[in-house]
Amino acid sequence: GHNKIITTGYRALREQAQSWMDAHEGNLMGSDVDKYIFYSAVTIVCDGMCILARRYGEECARMAEEDRFPEWRKAELRTMAEMLSRVPEEPCRTYWEAMMAINLYMLCLCLDAQNHGVTFGRIDQYAGHFLEDELKNGTITMEFAQEICDSFILKTAEYTRSETQRAPKV
Questions:
Q1: How far is CA 148 from the centre of its chain?
Q2: I need a surface site. Which of 7, 21, 116, 145 has the fewest CB within 10 A?
Q3: Could you give the count of Cα atoms lying within 13 Å of 96 in the half-sphere of its Cβ?
Q4: Interval 153-163: pLDDT, tens
């Protein structure tokens, strides 16, 4: 779930899956075959999500060099490029990274499940401590945290389909 992506990252998840597969290579019994197929899929998804995040980061870096953006936006894009070079592959360090990792995880779920029953759950329980720590340390303002949250909601709203995009009823 969300918390595992935030606290562990895709690299560690991939390593766990690969470790299980390596330990059972050539010695699959009973339901081990189903587990092997599952863990193989986990490694593929983890690799795919890391590649996707890096590509988004590369695009942010490219956009930061364009003249069409003001300096504040270029700085934001450079920050996002840096974050996407490590998140969601690695554990999150900040509220912004956590929200970015959750967003990418939601995108992954939507790509896989075509948006059926995808929910955030309790974001406050798995990302709230980042915000609390940063507010206490003075490394983020409530206004910027609100901007991150608002952007997160707007971005993830793009993943939902309107009634006109849904499959026709049979």
A1: 14
A2: 116
A3: 20
A4: 898 888 766 55
SS3 65: coil
Whole-prediction pTM: 0.86
The tokens for 103 are 């967003």
Q: What percent of the chain has pLDDT over 70?
A: 89
Tokens of 118: 């995808």
Predicted confidence (pLDDT) per residue in 38-69, tens digit: 999 999 999 999 999 999 999 999 999 999 99
